[in-house]
User: Fold this.
Amino acid sequence: MKKHIPNTITCCNLISGCIATYWALCGIYDMALLFIVIGAVFDFFDGMTARLLHVSSPIGKELDSLADDITFGLAPSAILFDFLKQHATLLPWHYLAYAAFIMAAFSALRLAKFNLDERQLLGFIGLPTPANALFWAALLTGCEELLGASPVGVWAVFVGMLLSCYLLISEIPMFALKFKHWGWRGNEIKYIFVLTSAVLLILFRVNGMAMVIAWYILLSIITSFKRKQTT
Assistant:
């Protein structure tokens, strides 16, 4: 019985992604964001549960990637598609809205790469799909009217989407919030990130979530650059 518990949690993640996609296509981004967050919670606990119960399996690993591509690939792509479709008059061709689903494909590529890449034990290579999904869902939930008010904002979203596709499969090292110990030494970047993220979320709420992901990317790039200089 216990071997089915992690896969059940993973399926809850997948279902959350399906519901998030529905709300995204309805143009109700705050509900889409909510179910992406719920999916992220299930995604966090399925792996933990499998390790605690000692029931990890190859099928669980594959199912997890499928669920993640729905919740963190398709759902944010649907939000972007709906946003670009609504503001198609500000684009030279309204068919460009369909390009939003390229991000779902790149998310699938990133997940497949993660499954095969043995370097990603203590950190990530490229932008994790949950971070990418939360960024776009939070950004368009909090700034839809501002970004959709002019061609500049709409094009910024389109170009940003292409940039995030690159980041998903890039070779940029990004840190993970995994602590071997709770001391300051060796965990400086992680503690700085957690503290500043808390401030951003308190001050800016939904918009703060997008700022946290942008800060995470920037801090990872800075850390990687400094590490290369010292080696």
